[in-house]
Amino acid sequence: MEVYINEKPRDIAKGTMLFDLKKQIKKDSDVIVYNGFIVKENLELKEKDRVVFIKRGEIPSEEDMEAMLVSRHTPLVHEKVKGYTVGIAGLGGLGSNVALSLARLGVGKLVLIDFDVVEPSNLNRQQYFIRHIGMNKTDALEELINECNPFVEIEKRKVFLDENNIEDVLRNVDIIVEAFDNPMSKAIITNTVLRDMKDKKIVAASGMAGHFTGNTIVSRKIRGNFYLIGDGENEARPGQGLMAPRVAIAANHQANTVLRIILGEE
């Protein structure tokens, strides 16, 4: 009968047990992903089962890494996700979180756009560490992405986006994530895309400051190519700062919206 091992078809004898297959394929593996779930039982394999064998701490090849992603996402999802290019405009609390979620999803290419460096005050909500202070955010985030999925293609653009360069910088992306802190920059990129780049989808965010309930942060489709995340109310202001929990909730709403756009479930 036929099963899939690291997403490659292989003929095995009917009645083969999972642990016997492990001895044949990768006897030193200590994690077994069986049909998308980690298992510890010695199960009897069935026709068309999918199995991935993993050794903890071992850096996989690109082929094996993709097989592991496929084993979790299902083949159809992964094939779609890896075919997309996403541009992330702003790599602060929103953008750094979005980028890592999309990298973990296995998005084919990320265009990382930011002109700034990591500062100590960023560490309360952005996905950087003390070792990154003083580094360009594009470089720091590339380092982090490589530590969780080194096979995502990265393009870094160390520029300040304005009306004069938005179209050029984002010309070749499929989906744009607006992730700025500055309200004026948010408005400029959103209006430019809606007016001049109607073939692009844009996922923007507004209203995630403070320590209010996270349940008010929602994803909304405003029009054909415009999606807005947040509570639409609680912007950062004196006495109401940007804090890690609600910012990360909004960022992952953005990442999930990107995924749903890719899968045609928007």
TrEMBL record:
<dbReference type="Pfam" id="PF14453">
    <property type="entry name" value="ThiS-like"/>
</dbReference>
<dbReference type="InterPro" id="IPR000594">
    <property type="entry name" value="ThiF_NAD_FAD-bd"/>
</dbReference>
<protein>
    <submittedName>
        <fullName>Sulfur carrier protein ThiS adenylyltransferase ThiF</fullName>
    </submittedName>
</protein>
<keyword id="KW-0548">Nucleotidyltransferase</keyword>
<dbReference type="GO" id="GO:0008641">
    <property type="term" value="F:ubiquitin-like modifier activating enzyme activity"/>
</dbReference>
<dbReference type="Pfam" id="PF00899">
    <property type="entry name" value="ThiF"/>
</dbReference>
<dbReference type="GO" id="GO:0061504">
    <property type="term" value="P:cyclic threonylcarbamoyladenosine biosynthetic process"/>
</dbReference>
<dbReference type="InterPro" id="IPR012729">
    <property type="entry name" value="ThiF_fam2"/>
</dbReference>
<feature type="domain" description="THIF-type NAD/FAD binding fold">
    <location>
        <begin position="78"/>
        <end position="265"/>
    </location>
</feature>
<feature type="domain" description="ThiS-like ubiquitin">
    <location>
        <begin position="1"/>
        <end position="57"/>
    </location>
</feature>
<dbReference type="InterPro" id="IPR035985">
    <property type="entry name" value="Ubiquitin-activating_enz"/>
</dbReference>
<dbReference type="GO" id="GO:0016779">
    <property type="term" value="F:nucleotidyltransferase activity"/>
</dbReference>
<dbReference type="InterPro" id="IPR032726">
    <property type="entry name" value="ThiS-like_dom"/>
</dbReference>
<dbReference type="InterPro" id="IPR045886">
    <property type="entry name" value="ThiF/MoeB/HesA"/>
</dbReference>
<keyword id="KW-0808">Transferase</keyword>
<dbReference type="GO" id="GO:0061503">
    <property type="term" value="F:tRNA threonylcarbamoyladenosine dehydratase"/>
</dbReference>
